[in-house]
């Protein structure tokens, strides 16, 4: 991965939790990250209706503003019994007049599952689409996912966002109960990262 100037990569996110995970994934390859918030870049409006559309908006905005290659992540949880909701609106479900409240968002998802009458297990997947945008306007897309289930009540205080309600297949702990390294081996972001690595090379 020697295509980045000074082995530093601009990550077009304002989410600290994501930035730390992406920094851990890249650190094995000798690349350090700088976040969009650290460069005082504005948060673009995510007007797309798919992960890839929103990831493109974020990555291109950062690449155009800085002249640096920029990596974005657009992600969310898709709950099968809710026809894939909240999906691309995962962050929106947490919005309140006083900032984001993920406890509220997870409670809404649980309330809607109860109202739907769907039996457990409530299968779900976490999705993350990475877009690497270049200052010349071209980009590369790397989708990732991890299958599991939505569990209730919330368990664990590690991680971020909806981690306390997502239990990946083959594990009896939620992402919220895993340490960062364990989550980073199996997450949707790790899956997208494997594809990015295959495309742009090791080293
Ligand atoms: O590993 C995860 N563990 C728990 N929750 C997660 C994860 N990955 C995404 N999520 C949830 C929360 C996040 O807020 C939303 C994505 O929304 P999304 O617009 O892509 O991210 P964001 O607004 O938080 O940051 P930004 O757009 O600046 O990258 O899905
Ligand atoms: Mg966002």
Automatic annotation (TrEMBL):
Its cofactor is Mg(2+). Mg(2+) binds at residues 45, 74. One of its GO terms (biological process) is purine nucleoside triphosphate catabolic process. It comes from the Bacteria. The keyword Hydrolase applies. Binds 1 Mg(2+) ion per subunit. Gene3D superfamilies: 3.90.950.10. It catalyses: dITP + H2O = dIMP + diphosphate + H(+); XTP + H2O = XMP + diphosphate + H(+); ITP + H2O = IMP + diphosphate + H(+). The keyword Magnesium applies. It holds the Pfam family Ham1p_like. Substrate binds at residues 13-18, 75, 160-163, 183, 188-189. It is an enzyme of class 3 (hydrolase). The active site is at residue 74. Belongs to the HAM1 NTPase family. Pyrophosphatase that catalyzes the hydrolysis of nucleoside triphosphates to their monophosphate derivatives, with a high preference for the non-canonical purine nucleotides XTP (xanthosine triphosphate), dITP (deoxyinosine triphosphate) and ITP. Seems to function as a house-cleaning enzyme that removes non-canonical purine nucleotides from the nucleotide pool, thus preventing their incorporation into DNA/RNA and avoiding chromosomal lesions. Homodimer. HAMAP family: Non_canon_purine_NTPase. This is dITP/XTP pyrophosphatase. It comes from Silicimonas algicola.
């Amino acid at each position: 991965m020697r295509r980045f100037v000074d082995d530093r990569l601009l990550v077009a996110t304002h989410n600290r939790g994501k930035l730390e995970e992406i920094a851990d994934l890249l650190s094995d390859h000798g690349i350090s990250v700088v976040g969009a918030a650290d460069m005082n870049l504005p948060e673009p409006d995510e007007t797309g209706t798919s992960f890839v559309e929103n990831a493109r908006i974020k990555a291109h905005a950062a690449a155009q503003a800085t002249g640096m290659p920029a990596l974005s992540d657009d992600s969310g949880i898709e709950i099968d019994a809710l026809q894939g909701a909240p999906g691309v609106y995962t962050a929106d479900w947490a919005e309140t007049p006083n900032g984001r409240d993920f406890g509220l968002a997870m409670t809404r998802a649980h309330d809607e599952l109860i109202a739907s009458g769907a039996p457990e297990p409530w299968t779900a997947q976490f999705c993350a689409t990475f877009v690497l945008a270049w200052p010349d306007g071209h980009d590369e897309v790397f989708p990732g996912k991890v299958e599991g289930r939505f569990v209730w009540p919330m368990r664990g205080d590690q991680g971020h966002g909806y981690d306390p309600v997502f239990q990946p297949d083959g594990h009896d702990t939620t992402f919220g109960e895993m340490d960062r390294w364990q989550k980073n081996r199996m997450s949707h972001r790790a899956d997208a990262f494997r594809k990015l690595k295959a495309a742009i090379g090791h080293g």
